[in-house]
Amino acid sequence: MRKIAQFAVCGFIAACVVGVPALARATPGQAERLGGAEPQGPASRSLTALHHNPAMLAGMKGFRFQFGGAGGLDQRWIRREAVMPDGTPTGELGPRINLNNPTGGYFVAGSLYFEPFAVGIGAYDLGSEIHYSSDDRLRWHLAPEEDGRPPLFCRRDDPNCKLNGGAATQRTDITIAVAWNILASLRIGIGVHLPRLRQRFSYDNSTVLSEHRDDGPRCNRVENPLCAERLGFNGRTRWLPDRDDRPAGFDVALTFGLAFDLSDRVTVGLRYRTRPLVRGGELTLAGDALVCRPDTTEGTDSDVLPCSVASPIDATVTQRVSREAALGAAFVLDRGRFWHIDTNLYWMDLCNDIVGRGAGVRTCADPGSQHISLVGLDRNSVLLPESTRYRGHQDLFGFDIYTTYQARSNLAAVVGGHFSSPVVRRSAREAGNNDGWRAGITVGLPLRVGSSNLQIVPGYGFDLYLPTSTGRPGDFDPAAATRFAASGGDINSDDAALVLAGRGRPSNAGRYTGAVHTFMLTLRWAERTPGRE
Questions:
Q1: pLDDT at 249 > cutoff 80
Q2: What range does the record give for the signal peptide (predicted)?
Q3: CA dist., res. 58 & res. 254, Å (int)
Q4: What fold is seen in the domain 2-153+164-198+247-280+322-359+393-526?
């Protein structure tokens, strides 16, 4: 009991080092809790080094294999501001909207060390998101799924594939890494990543905000459901062009890692990951889109077809993927080597700053916008064949700290704390993205089975989306779209840049908060007992 109490106290102190215990699920690509409830970072001896720092593979002897899975519940609590007929927010918060969505992830990898080199290979999920649940009051940014629970990612010829509700993002990597012990205390490594992105999203556009439509008294306010036009997309990166000649999206990114043992008790690690190299950081998703009318009442001759009878069309989405950098250190604290601390300080260039533009954290060169191309678009649609989906990204900074106590030869305990900055600017926050300040904690119990080198690691993670109110006026400004339409679509007007950037949409103003519960289970085997390197 005394040892357990000591562990609890030390874990609490470690969490307080970061100010607040921290989070997961910030944005696809962050790879928080990669592989489960275990220490991880640029200086951690774990197979998650495939992502965090490939140089650390040369610090683990023998053969290793690991499989991990995670699932849980993402809870959102949103109080959206009421809006006036022109779409501008009134400042009055509405009732709380509760959204509950599942979460999931996986990690599978192996490594082999043969003096002085190590090689590793793995496939893993990088913070995927699932948003089945939404609400009609949030439909302008995340349309609710009204047709049950169709497959998240599906093909056009699947009769159960519906594109007119829900959203999901799955970012995965296939990684091959090589590490080298240059000196007794210095290791270097390089990882080759093959990124793959699958995504679906659905949201409504207000036809009132378009200069192409004038439906008279029927459309007398911006957020009138009778005047909504839904856009749904489902696509993925294709490594090879398919028979429909849709574009391929094969790409490759590199991670360079360095690790140095300051002593037999202190290790420092550093990693840098490039953005995808083939297309200058862009990933292309080829798939299908549905442009339709969600309202079931009888429409006019100028309306698009109802969603129940509309047919999908070919579509592509392109977006830029960030580069990353991280610095971490691992410490062995006591004489018996029972206490370990692993840290991870990371940065993700979600702004995708380009040399020469002079952009920074608050003024992004590329705020995460997605460029949408629609082939065969209905001429009655208010959309353009080429349009932009604005997301308002900014650079992400985060810190993780893990404390491990080896209670027995076959039992350890892990407590981790995490904290990360917002993924998007406050005024761009909305229901379809995991964004805002986050804080969380991780607990795990690595248990060795009998006298074998097989470990089972159950774990639990809790993350809090810190309460945030969007600014007014926000990055989404329906008044700008109205003024742009009134000007006859004058490309030289002050509002043209906002509309063409995808910001002339119904307001997202409101108060956002939430929590994520994550349950993890990891199986790992090593020729040498983990933790006794």
A1: no
A2: 1-26
A3: 18
A4: Porin (2.40.160)
